[in-house]
């Protein structure tokens, strides 16, 4: 399975394409970064990111897109720009009917390094080892995009199994509730007749 | 000039098209709301909003798009969704080469009611009066979208004049600095010869 990982941002948007093989085998297909000028209009910057992501989707044809989920940042303005960049990436994927999954930074760090609190250098180091890269991906956003793709490849099977298990549990609960309701209906009138002497 | 105002949101995205005439004359062309199901995938919801906004742009052909600027909200998750919805709207406009301007809620309230702290009911009331609407736009997001369009029509000429004045001032400052630098170059050596007796 091929995944496009995206570390969204207006100034730098990291892109990384990774192929997943048997077990934990992963292979780097492409890595890069989209930059948009800080003095350009917001809508123009979003268009620049969207156009570049669309050309990556056309060129590499991934089966899924993994985007970093933004919760909150110190700088609200930056967080909003990051969310907007992530939004246009998700839109481009949806237009091609591709599944888009958002992963939190700590999920990505935990998947790649084993620790949700790993620093940037540790993540980059593990990404280089896992993908057999001789040159450090630059800037860090590019390494983060590769880490996101790896995280998705490794977490997705588990996430799907979990979703299936939850759906089964919900179905069992639904059936059980329906039986209880039916039983209450049947025993209800008897109880009433018992009370009325 | 015709403006599409957008009050972005994933659950409800308000849309309002307003024509501006001479002075402060405004006329309502269309008003509505796009809803996307809360249980749908985020990327699908963004696609639903994008498709609807694109069809409005094609149908009403506005000259500009005014979007509410999100700063921060109590609920970070909601704020991110709002930012993402606003991002795909800005993208749709940029694809059609339309200018997109973001206005803050207090700018909109101040433009329409005269007070940046007006409440929803006051904004809706003034929108109805200004546009001669007999029926209250529902939901509130639809009224907000109309208010955004009106705000844009009334603020834009002033905003452009301000930008032109700032550009002129920057140019004057640049010329003045260049003259000072040239003068310093010419007087510099004289001063030095004066010090060296």
Automatic annotation (TrEMBL), chains A, B:
Residue numbers annotated as active site: 7, 68, 141
Bound cofactor: record note: Binds 2 Mg(2+) ion per subunit.
Sequence positions that bind Mg(2+) 2: 68
PROSITE patterns: RUVC
Keyword terms, alphabetized: Cytoplasm, DNA damage, DNA recombination, DNA repair, DNA-binding, Endonuclease, Hydrolase, Magnesium, Metal-binding, Nuclease
Co-factor requirement: Mg(2+)
Enzyme class: hydrolase
SUPFAM superfamilies linked to this entry: Ribonuclease H-like
Residues reported in the UniProt entry to bind Mg(2+) 1: 7, 141
Entry's EC annotation: 3.1.21.10
Broad class of where this protein is predominantly found: cytoplasm
Intracellular or extracellular location(s): Cytoplasm
Superkingdom: Bacteria
Catalytic activity: Endonucleolytic cleavage at a junction such as a reciprocal single-stranded crossover between two homologous DNA duplexes (Holliday junction)
Protein's job: The RuvA-RuvB-RuvC complex processes Holliday junction (HJ) DNA during genetic recombination and DNA repair. Endonuclease that resolves HJ intermediates. Cleaves cruciform DNA by making single-stranded nicks across the HJ at symmetrical positions within the homologous arms, yielding a 5'-phosphate and a 3'-hydroxyl group; requires a central core of homology in the junction. The consensus cleavage sequence is 5'-(A/T)TT(C/G)-3'. Cleavage occurs on the 3'-side of the TT dinucleotide at the point of strand exchange.
PANTHER family given in the database record: CROSSOVER JUNCTION ENDODEOXYRIBONUCLEASE RUVC (PTHR30194)
Family to which the UniProt record says this protein belongs: Belongs to the RuvC family.
Assembly behavior: Homodimer which binds Holliday junction (HJ) DNA. The HJ becomes 2-fold symmetrical on binding to RuvC with unstacked arms; it has a different conformation from HJ DNA in complex with RuvA. In the full resolvosome a probable DNA-RuvA(4)-RuvB(12)-RuvC(2) complex forms which resolves the HJ.
Protein name: Crossover junction endodeoxyribonuclease RuvC
Originating species: Amycolatopsis samaneae
Lineage: Bacteria, Bacillati, Actinomycetota, Actinomycetes, Pseudonocardiales
């Amino acid at each position: 399975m091929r995944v496009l990982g995206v570390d969204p941002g207006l100034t730098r948007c990291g892109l990384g394409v990774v192929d997943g093989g048997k077990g934990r085998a992963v292979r780097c297909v492409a890595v890069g970064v989209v930059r948009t000028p800080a003095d350009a209009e917001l809508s123009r910057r979003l268009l620049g990111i969207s156009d570049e992501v669309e050309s990556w989707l056309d060129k590499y044809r991934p089966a899924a897109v993994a985007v970093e989920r933004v919760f909150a940042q110190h700088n609200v303005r930056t967080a909003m720009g990051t969310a907007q960049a992530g939004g246009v990436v998700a839109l481009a994927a949806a237009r091609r009917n591709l599944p888009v999954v958002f992963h939190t930074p700590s999920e990505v760090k935990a998947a790649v390094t084993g620790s949700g609190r790993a620093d940037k250098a540790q993540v980059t180091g593990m990404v280089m080892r896992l993908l057999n890269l001789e040159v450090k991906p630059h800037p860090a956003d590019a390494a983060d995009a590769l880490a996101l793709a790896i995280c998705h490849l490794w977490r997705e099977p588990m996430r799907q199994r979990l979703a299936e298990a939850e759906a089964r549990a919900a179905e069992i609960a639904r059936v059980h509730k329906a039986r209880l309701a039916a039983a209450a209906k049947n025993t209800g009138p008897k109880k009433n007749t018992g009370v009325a002497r």
